[in-house]
């Protein structure tokens, strides 16, 4: 059977020879944080507690000089060795090792193998929307663990939207006092204190993930108007918004009243009011001070309530504010329509695998400006899309349900004409939470499709095993590991799930 390795490593050589047996006396050596991380995953997978020894059975090491985040893994009957080019590479080698652990005839073992591996893209992201339905810190921690196990290295937190503002701001305390208590459908809201946010950043960093926070501007800002109505325009109602309300329920948005519906595009800030830019500078300045990573995401999508000229003026100024804070601006692809966007701005494309409505031209604008793009095609890597037509969670606006096969069968360099490998910063799988309330929902919607996004992000595009047929078998072999890690994945009928001891 094909080894259950996802994402597929660059080079895998298996041998018809005895593998390594994990037993209660197995020992490990290496950097302390790496030892602890490996011991935890082995304990959860097998119940065996690894002990530390200088002359160990499993040796973890770092040897600088290789490609960033790369590693090599060697397994034979006598020993296991993982050598990373850096701490992240060592961590990812341990995730691969965890996937190799098997249980057969009463023994835990690791098959003999030689693996040399490095990522295709440097930015491998997952996005978690905590605005439509607030997710507590413990859930964010669990999501980080799950994503890191698949070698994702960026956590994009969508912190603000029409339904709520989710981060404490000392400069603007009313944001959480007045605009954080609700979620979609009237569910309870919530927010992160600064201490909570720092804890998330630290937890992610320990797992080699960088937090990319998003404050969505100038649309998706109804919650801002609940807290500070003097800088928000009244809701702009259109037939599209009325249709969404008719389809999904809820009331019309009203100025300064918390919004609990699903319609988008009706909110905007007052673009010609200098108090708006004072607000933007205040909240982005606080966010930048809290965030050690290089990116600040300022949204820019679906600003249907903002005139085109006003939108352009706002995005020009907002990207300049981010740059002045020492961060790289990141926006959704709509901002590519703006002539004087800051040149360093990275665009995130959320259109379809086959672009429509000029979305590809807006994405190309970032590349022409000398920057790059992140690909998040909604009909492939939006994890909140229904996996099947009869699924009880999710939406279908992105070309209908997204099966696991469709999530897998796309090639990043084929999405937008004129945007090649070097123009792509990376891939990001997005999990919006209009219909998703808790960790169980997150698991069921993300897994197994998140594994397809991981492979698009990490694995070489070519190779005998880089196929849907092989991928579905490899994913199926991860069922025992995912069960042991407590991941409540959707047992999709598309995948031949491996049975047996978790």
TrEMBL record:
EC number in record: 3.2.1.52
Catalysed reaction equations from the record: Hydrolysis of terminal non-reducing N-acetyl-D-hexosamine residues in N-acetyl-beta-D-hexosaminides
Domain Beta-hexosaminidase bacterial type N-terminal residue range list: 4-118
InterPro entries in UniProt: Beta_hexosaminidase_sua/sub, GH, Glyco_hydro_20_cat, Hex-like_dom2, HEX_bac_N
Keyword tags: Glycosidase, Hydrolase
Annotated Glycoside hydrolase family 20 catalytic domain residues: 121-303, 313-460
SUPFAM superfamilies in alphabetical order: (Trans)glycosidases, beta-N-acetylhexosaminidase-like domain
Source domain of life: Bacteria
Presence of keyword Metal-binding: no
Family: Belongs to the glycosyl hydrolase 20 family.
Protein name, entry field: beta-N-acetylhexosaminidase
């Amino acid at each position: 059977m094909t080894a259950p390795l996802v994402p597929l490593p660059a080079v895998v050589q298996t041998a018809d020879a005895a593998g390594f047996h994990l037993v209660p006396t197995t020992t490990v050596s290496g950097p302390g944080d790496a030892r602890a991380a490996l011991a935890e995953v082995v304990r959860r997978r097998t119940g065996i507690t690894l002990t530390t020894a200088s002359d160990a059975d499993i040796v973890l090491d770092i040897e600088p000089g290789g490609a960033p985040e790369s590693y090599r893994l060697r397994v034979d009957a006598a020993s296991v060795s993982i050598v990373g080019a850096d701490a992240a590479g060592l961590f990812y080698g341990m995730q691969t090792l965890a996937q190799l652990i098997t249980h057969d005839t009463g023994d835990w073992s690791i098959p003999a193998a030689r693996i040399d591996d490095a990522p295709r893209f440097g930015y491998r992201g997952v996005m978690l929307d905590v605005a439509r339905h607030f997710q507590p810190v413990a859930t964010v921690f669990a999501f980080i663990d799950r994503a890191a196990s698949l070698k994702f290295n960026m956590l994009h937190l969508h912190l603000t939207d029409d339904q709520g503002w989710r981060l404490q701001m000392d400069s603007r305390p009313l944001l959480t006092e007045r605009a954080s208590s609700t979620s979609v459908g009237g569910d309870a809201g919530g927010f992160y204190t600064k201490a909570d946010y720092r804890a998330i950043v630290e937890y992610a960093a320990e797992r080699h993930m960088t937090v990319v926070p998003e404050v969505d501007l100038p649309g998706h800002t109804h919650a801002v108007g609940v807290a500070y109505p003097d800088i928000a325009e009244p809701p702009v109602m259109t037939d599209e918004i009325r249709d969404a309300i008719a389809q999904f329920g809820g009331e019309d948005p009203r100025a300064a009243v918390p919004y609990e519906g699903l319609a988008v595009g009706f909110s905007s800030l007052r673009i010609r009011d200098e108090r708006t830019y004072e607000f933007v500078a205040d909240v982005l300045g606080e966010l930048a001070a809290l965030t050690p990573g290089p990116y600040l995401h300022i949204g820019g999508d679906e600003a249907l309530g903002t005139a085109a000229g006003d939108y352009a003026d706002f995005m020009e100024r907002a990207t300049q504010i981010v740059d002045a804070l020492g961060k790289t601006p990141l926006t959704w692809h709509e901002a590519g329509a703006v002539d004087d966007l800051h040149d360093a701005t990275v665009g995130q494309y959320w259109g379809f695998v086959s672009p429509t409505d000029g979305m590809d031209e807006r994405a190309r604008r970032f590349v022409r400006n000398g920057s790059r793009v992140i690909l998040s095609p909604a009909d492939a890597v939006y994890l909140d899309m229904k996996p099947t037509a009869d699924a009880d969670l999710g939406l279908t606006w992105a070309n209908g349900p997204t099966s696991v096969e469709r999530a897998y069968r796309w090639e990043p360099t084929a999405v937008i004409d004129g945007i090649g490998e070097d123009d792509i910063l990376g891939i990001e799988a997005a999990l919006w939470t209009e219909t998703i309330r808790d960790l169980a929902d997150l698991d069921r919607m993300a897994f197994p499709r998140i594994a397809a996004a991981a492979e698009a992000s990490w694995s070489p595009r070519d190779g005998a095993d880089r196929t849907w047929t092989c991928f579905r078998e490899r994913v199926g072999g991860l069922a025992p590991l995912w069960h042991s890690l407590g991941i409540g994945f959707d047992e999709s009928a598309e995948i031949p799930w491996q049975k047996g001891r978790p």
